[in-house]
Amino acid sequence: MAESDKEDRTEEATGRRLQQAHDRGQIPRSRELNTAAMLVAASFVLWSFGGHFAQGMARMMEESFRVSREEAFYPDAMVRHFADAVWEMVKLFGPLLALTVVVALASPIGLGGWNFSTEAIEPKFSKINPWNGLKRLFGMQGLIELVKSVFKVLLIGIVSWRLLRHYWDKMLGLGDLPLMSALATSTDMLGFSLLVLSLSLVLIAAVDVPVQLWTYKRDLRMTKQEVKDESKETEGSPQVKQKIRQMQMEFAVRRMMEAVPKADVVVTNPTHYAVALQYQQGGVAAAPRVVAKGADLVAAQIRNAAAGAGVPLLPAPPLARALYYSTELDQEIPTGLYMAVAQVLAYVYQLRAARQTGAVPPPEPRDLPIPPDLAHD
């Protein structure tokens, strides 16, 4: 990645970018953490059970040098003797090796999670390209690795020197001890020394883990254009979303226009708002419901559709505003408007009867009761 390209990548990686990297097997890893965890676990077990390991090794050595005449002259017996020695070694050091394997798997999982990707192990020319290798060697990552290596050598050297001075007299006195005591003492010194050295590597891992996490996030940073392109891919472009919203609005308006002829009455502002009400006596709905509503241009379309279908239009501005703001489409009106709508429906039924009989139309209702909490200016 060119330096100028890195400078342009100022945005943090999105969730989709992180998931794609995880699917490719690109997850944060720290070799220092893995090494330190394995060595600490192995050295702690070796130090804690040093006597057990010493006795087991002494027993194996004793059995290995004890060869009977039958085993010396018969190959099959010698093979069985060797197999028994190997089995004893497996039983002695098997748990230690198993613990090391478990820790080796658990430490990277704890840092970056579990991932198995065939893409990560596919052969790629870029991985063996000498030029890319030189750029990594002399780049920032190479400098970080060099500093870690120098610090690691110095730290291990200092700790080893202090341990050597601490155990110098004991090491010189091992030759004067019986075999079992010498083995037990040697195993104890070896286990403790490895434990101290391993714990010193924890300091390096404590520095390396944040560095690896920072490097991982830095490498996955995105440019502003990449974030915009990804947003378009996942959510659609603004033009497409606007077109979808427009189509949804047109569909909703068309559906409302189809419901207007079935309404009982259209309450108007009379020019800015229009709300179509329908009440089915004896139906499932317990109260009248709004089957269409709109403002300005949509309100004009509702009024035209109602006039063409012979649905009564009732100018009642306070009620029209209250219905428009308090009730959604296909919902029943609130209880606070029952009294006002009941007067409107009574007027509608009287108007129908008058049209059928040729009688004088009833007067339009006035001063409809609107609760203050539902009133809108």
Automatic annotation (TrEMBL):
Alphabetical keyword list: Bacterial flagellum biogenesis, Bacterial flagellum protein export, Cell membrane, Cell projection, Cilium, Flagellum, Membrane, Protein transport, Transmembrane, Transmembrane helix, Transport
Highest classification ranks of the organism: Bacteria, Pseudomonadati, Pseudomonadota, Gammaproteobacteria, Methylococcales
Membrane-topology annotation of the record: Multi-pass membrane protein
Family: Belongs to the type III secretion exporter family.
Spans through the membrane: 33-54, 92-116, 137-164, 189-214
Stored NCBIfam families: flhB
Function: Required for formation of the rod structure in the basal body of the flagellar apparatus. Together with FliI and FliH, may constitute the export apparatus of flagellin.
Subcellular compartments: Cell membrane
A single GO cellular-component term on record: plasma membrane
The keyword Membrane belongs to this UniProt entry's keyword annotation: yes
Region described as Disordered: 1-27, 358-377
Bias type Pro residues, positions: 360-377
Protein name: Flagellar biosynthetic protein FlhB
Source species, domain of life: Bacteria
ATP-binding listed as a keyword: no
A GO BP entry: bacterial-type flagellum assembly
